Amino acid sequence: MRSLWNPDDCAALQRRFATLTDDHRARWGRMTCAQMIRHVAWGIQMATGERPIADMRTPLRFFPLKQLVLHVLPFPRSAPTAHALKADAASDVRSVAEERAGLDAALASFRAMNRQAPWGPHPAFGTMTGTSWGRMLHKHADHHLRQFGA
User: Fold this and answer.
1) Where do the structural domains in the chain lie, given as residue ranges?
2) What is the C-alpha to C-alpha distance for residues 68 and 85, in angstroms, rounded to an integer?
3) pLDDT band at 135, cuts 50/70/90?
4) 130-147 and 96-111 helices, crossing angle to 10°
5) Radius of gyration (C-alpha) of the chain in whole angstroms
6) Distances from the Cα of 28 to the Cαs of 49, 51, 146, in angstroms?
7) DSSP code of 98?
8) What is the DSSP string of 22-46?
9) Which of 84, 82, 80, 93 is CA-nearest to residue 35?
10) What are phi and psi of 126, to 5 degrees?
11) Percent of the chain, pLDDT > 90?
12) What's the Cα-to-Cα distance from 75 to each of 80, 81, 140, 141, rounded to whole Å?
């Protein structure tokens, strides 16, 4: 399974993000391209603890369902997300290039962490290992890149 921990997988995502411009439009959902990039960066910052997110208490915490969503099923289009991860126009979103720089910094921060150390919980999935975070964040980024045709 692909992961942000794998240098080749991470580089492939960054190359796909590099193809995006301010003119890209979403195939589904309401985010602009720059908002999507910020949303993905904020998700990575959530994993590293740089962006605390309130617990959502969802049924996704139960082991079989959690494993199915994290490792088997694709993320559904327009799935609900934590309000704190929604990058709307009021959140001072900048250009795609500026947001991509923030994403690159978030990726570097994530990859500098110890995968084997204890990690904070995900607001919807609960307790997760560093390995699970790397897989889930890759899957999340890929989902949004497909949303914008990259």
Assistant:
1) 7-147
2) 23
3) very high
4) 160
5) 14
6) 29, 26, 10
7) H
8) TT---SSSS--HHHHHHHHHHHHHH
9) 93
10) 75, -145
11) 62
12) 10, 11, 7, 10
- 9-44 tens-digit pLDDT: 999 999 999 999 999 999 998 889 999 999 999 999
What's the rounded Cα separation, in Å, for the pair 63 and 81?
Answer: 20
Per-residue buried b or exposed e for 84-105, using 16+ beta carbons within 10 Å of the residue's own CB: ebebeeeeebeebeebbebbee
Residue 11 in tokens: 């580089």
CA distance 58 to 86: 18
Token pair of 137 as six digits: 């964040």
Q: Tell me which residue has tokens 């900048």.
A: 94
